[in-house]
Design goal:
With 144 residues, the protein is α/β, with parallel strands linked by helices. It contains three helices and seven strands. It has a four-stranded mixed sheet with strand order 4-7-6-5, covered by helices on one side. Strands 1-3-2 form a three-stranded mixed sheet, covered by helices on one side.
Length: 144
């Protein structure tokens, strides 16, 4: 049996382009180049029949180390808490006040992009601080 070498994270969403651009800003990812023969993704999407336009959009780690993230349009809206979420590792290796200050600064940056600060979980005897957030379509994620 072979081991898994790559994986993609897929979000169901209402607006794939908008959500992909948001997560590119969060993760430092990039939008891949448009298909050959098109100057932009918008030009490519306009060339498609209406029923095929912008049904998905992706972004990727420019270093090639992280997973590709795909955003696919679905007709239904989000109605319950995610069963899987991303942990954005903004405070890796930091502890105490330095970690909290780093997380709070990243939270402020993401709120300016349209994210929602849900709550801050402060460090205790067992865990370091983390911040629960929602992206621009209400998907939960954590800054840790």
């Amino acid at each position: 049996m072979s081991s898994l070498k790559e994986f993609q994270v897929t979000f169901d969403c209402a607006d794939p382009v908008r959500l992909a651009r948001f997560w590119c800003e969060v993760l430092g990812y990039v939008i891949p180049p448009p298909p050959e023969g098109f100057a932009t993704w918008e030009e490519h999407h306009r060339s498609l029949p209406p029923e095929k336009q912008v049904v998905y959009f992706a972004c990727s780690d420019p270093s090639g180390k992280g997973p590709r993230v795909l955003f696919q349009r679905v007709p239904e809206g989000k109605v319950v808490k995610n069963r899987v979420h991303l942990d954005v590792r903004a405070g890796t290796g930091l502890v105490g006040a330095e970690r909290l200050a780093t997380l709070e600064a990243e939270c402020a940056r993401l709120v300016a992009l349209g994210a929602v600060h849900v709550r801050t979980l402060y460090a205790d005897d067992d865990n370091e601080s983390c911040i629960n957030m929602q992206d621009i379509e209400g998907n939960e994620f954590c800054l840790d």
